[in-house]
């Protein structure tokens, strides 16, 4: 069993003020769905270079503490402010696991934004080696094999504290048997910077 000594990726370098701006963008993206005006993307000249750089994120929505939507990307393809805007709307109205968010749910809605670091390839030669690494580093994980992929954010550790259970659930999410492993499995890890806040009932 070969265990990599690779440290976890550093967290994205965003401060509290910048994360708060992203939370406001997500709120506005959701609010605009219930407005008669046409939805508008964020005005780019209002934001600094870090928020305008291409970035990857997930937006997680909860109503009364229950998951209502969670969509995102692990690949930085467009400016972070636009990615947050789009993923907030997608999580609210396009996550097929849930009915679209309704106006009645807004007063109980919370929004969490997770900005991802660049995923780094982790050199492990077995599932046991990956579990050993995760005993020391509670990071986000991407498992890929051919065209199948599954992602868990670091927040999942709050519900699946055991690395073995974490990887088992991640393989199930990918549609693989729980005992599956092969030399074709690629592992990437990432960290996140997060912010969570209420939707704010005055927007309703």
TrEMBL record:
InterPro entries: AMMECR1, AMMECR1_dom_sf, AMMECR1_domain, AMMECR1_N, AmmeMemoSam_A. The gene is amrA. Residues 17-204 form the AMMECR1 domain. It holds the Pfam family AMMECR1. SUPFAM superfamilies: AMMECR1-like. This is AmmeMemoRadiSam system protein A. It comes from the Bacteria. It comes from Photobacterium arenosum.
